Structure formats: structure tokens, C-alpha cells
Amino acid sequence: MSWAERRKRMIIGGAISALIVFFIIPSFFILRNKPTCSNGEQDSGESGVDCGGSCRLVCEGDALAPLIHFTRALEVSSGIWGAVVSLENQNKDAGSTSAVYVVKLYDADNLLVAERHGTVYIPPNKIFAVFEGALDVGWRVPTRATFEFTAPIRFETMAPDPVIDIRSKRFTQSVDGSRLDVSLYNPARTAVQESEFVALLFDSTGNVFASSATSVKDLSALSSTNISFTWPRELQDPARIEVLSTVSGVHP
């Protein structure tokens, strides 16, 4: 074999080696490590198409639907009513960033008085509440409320809500209205963002007779803050007060 032929083969071999090193091998790893949770296929240990396994999305049917403990229609003032719903998500490591629902109020004749659509963040493994206020019912008097999710809930794996301590609760009332002042404390070393709070006032029979909601945009690490819930009329003394929280700003 002449030197020219050997040189030609060396050049061709070098070109092939460069092609393998710079194109074929990287392409192999790119294709090997391509995302599997959004490719429209059931692969890589997924329980369904792009769900389960290592995917964040939980397959439909693998998560429990939230329990509805109670739904109450509550008078706020003349012609203005609200509704509160107590729910529980029993899924330990799964929640939803936005579940769609509707609340409806009915009168004694089972006629629809008012309705409101909304979305709610569902935290993992927690009892939480949905409150809808300022529902104008006119001269009609609601006697019951209903709540239902209007679309399949998209559950995702997520960490539990951070803990927010309720340090104190003080209820006061007068002829001008009623007020609940609550002291909060964030025991974590990181800030808590987008917290929602729903107050539930119970009578001596264990039924909720008033509710209200408020929010805190940012609660710094190892810090306290105060929140207030108000009602435009004088309420009876509650036998028990609960304040339920959700932290929709955290979705690790």
C-alpha cells in the first residue's frame, strides 16, 4: 500500500472518529436521557401515559378524591350570604395546585339562589376549607349549600404545607360587628408565601355558624404576624374556634 493510500485512509478514519465522538455519542445520550413525562407515551416505569413512576403527575385513579366533611350556608348580613366547605385530602404526598369547583345556595323550595365558581389549592394530607362570601341572594333565604368539583382534579406529587403555628385567638363583639384576632408564627428558617386562612366559629352543638377568610402574602422565617377576621354584625360567643391554613406558594 502506497503512502498516499495510507494517508487517505488515515484522513477518512479520523473523520469517522470525529463524527462518532462529536455527533453520534452525544446524540445517543441526548436521546437516552430525553424527557419521558411529556412525550405522550407510557415508558420508563410510568403507571400511565406521562404519569406515575418518576413523573410528578399522579395518574387519574391513583389518588383519593378529597373528603367533604360539611358544607354550610351562612348569613353575613341582610341579603348577603356566604358558604364554607370543610375538606380533607387523604393523599400523603399528592396535592393539586388548582382544582375547579362550584358552590351553590338553595332555598327551602330547593330553588337555586346563588352560585359561584372558583379554584382552590389542595395541600397534601391535610384538612382545609373553602370559603365564599358576599353572595347576593336578594330577598330569598338560603337553607342549604352544595359543593362539587367541576373537572377531574390534576394531582401532583408535592411536599406537605409548611407548619404555621397559631399562637393565640381572641374573639370580640359589639353592636357594630364581631372580630377575631389571631397571632401567627412561622417556626421555619425559610419564608412562607401565599398563605390562606379560614376561620370557623362553632356553636355548642358542633355546627359552624360563622366563617371568614383572609390571606398573608409573605411570612418571614422565625417571625410572627397578626391577622383579623371581621363580621358586620354581632355574633354569639363561639364554643370553639378553628383556623385552617393552606400555603399555595410552596410546591417543591
What does the average pLDDT come to? Answer: 89
| H/I helix tally | 1
Spans where pLDDT lies below 50 across 5 or more residues: none
Separation, N- and C-terminal Cα atoms: 65 Å
Q: How much strand?
A: over 45%
How does CATH name the architecture of the largest domain?
Sandwich
Structural class category: mainly beta
Helix content: 10-25%
Provide a short characterization of the protein structure.
The chain crosses the membrane at residues 12-31. This protein is mainly beta and 252 residues long.
Task: Characterise the protein shown here.
By secondary structure, the protein is mainly β. The protein has one helix and 13 strands, in the order H-E-E-E-E-E-E-E-E-E-E-E-E-E. The chain has three domains: 1-32; 58-158, Immunoglobulin-like (Sandwich), CATH 2.60.40; 161-252, Immunoglobulin-like (Sandwich), CATH 2.60.40. The strands form four sheets. Strands 3, 4, 6 and 7 form a four-stranded antiparallel β-sheet that branches. A three-stranded antiparallel β-sheet has the order 1-2-5, with no helix packed on it. Keywords: Membrane, Transmembrane, Transmembrane helix. The chain crosses the membrane at residues 12-31.
